[in-house]
């Protein structure tokens, strides 16, 4: 049975990212997106996410139930590598289906 979850994504830190959509330091931002999954991933699982035509792996670090949202929230990190290309960064930053939230 498919279930809607919210993914909270942390990207690897980069020295510079130039985009009007991204005025903050990358370590201070999480990107969120709701998606259908079946089954709900567990901590340590790798899930495939997308931003436009880009697909990339995400590792689930934490899975919590949010009563107010009535869904699981998956805290994830970019799981492809400890590095990410500027092109992939900008694709995620500017994707309309991902929302950036500052931690500050």
Helix share bin? under 10%
DSSP, total strands:
6
Q: Report mean pLDDT, rounded to a whole number.
A: 86
What is the name of the CATH class? Mainly Beta
Strand content: over 45%
Number of domains: 1
Structural class label:
mainly beta
* Helical stretch tally: 1
Q: pLDDT below 50 for ≥5 consecutive residues: which ranges?
A: none
> What is the fold-level CATH name, i.e. the topology?
Ribosomal Protein L25, Chain P
Largest sheet: 6 strands, mixed
Overall geometry: globular
- Distance from first to last alpha carbon: 36 Å
What's the order of the H and E elements? EEEEEHE
Radius of gyration: 13 Å
What CATH architecture label applies? Beta Barrel
Q: Strand order, biggest sheet?
A: 3-4-5-1-2-6
Index terms:
104 residues, mainly beta, Ribosomal Protein L25, Chain P, 6-stranded mixed beta sheet, 1 helix, 6 strands, globular
Word description of this protein:
The protein is mainly beta and 104 residues long. It has one domain: Ribosomal Protein L25, Chain P (Beta Barrel), CATH 2.40.240. It has one helix at 86-94, and strands at residues 3-10, 29-37, 46-51, 54-66, 71-78, 99-102. Strands 3-4-5-1-2-6 form a six-stranded mixed beta sheet, covered by helices on one side. Strand 4 and strand 5 (71-78) form a beta hairpin. The chain is globular and about 40 Å long.
Give a quick rundown of the structure.
The protein is mainly β. It is built from 1 helix and 6 strands.
Note the topology.
Layout (H helix, E strand, L loop, with lengths): L2 E8 L18 E9 L8 E6 L2 E13 L4 E8 L7 H9 L4 E4 L2
Parallel strand pairs: 1-5
Antiparallel strand pairs: 1-2, 2-6, 3-4, 4-5
């Amino acid at each position: 049975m498919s279930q809607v979850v919210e993914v909270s994504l942390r990207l690897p830190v980069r020295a510079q990212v130039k985009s009007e959509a991204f005025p903050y330091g990358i370590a201070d931002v999480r990107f969120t997106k709701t998606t259908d999954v079946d089954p709900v991933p567990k901590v340590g699982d790798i899930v495939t996410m997308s931003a436009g035509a880009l697909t990339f792996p995400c590792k689930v670090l934490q899975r919590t139930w949010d009563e107010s949202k009535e869904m699981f929230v998956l805290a994830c990190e970019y799981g492809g590598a400890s590095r990410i290309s500027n092109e992939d960064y900008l694709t995620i930053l500017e994707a309309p289906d991902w929302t950036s939230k500052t931690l500050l």
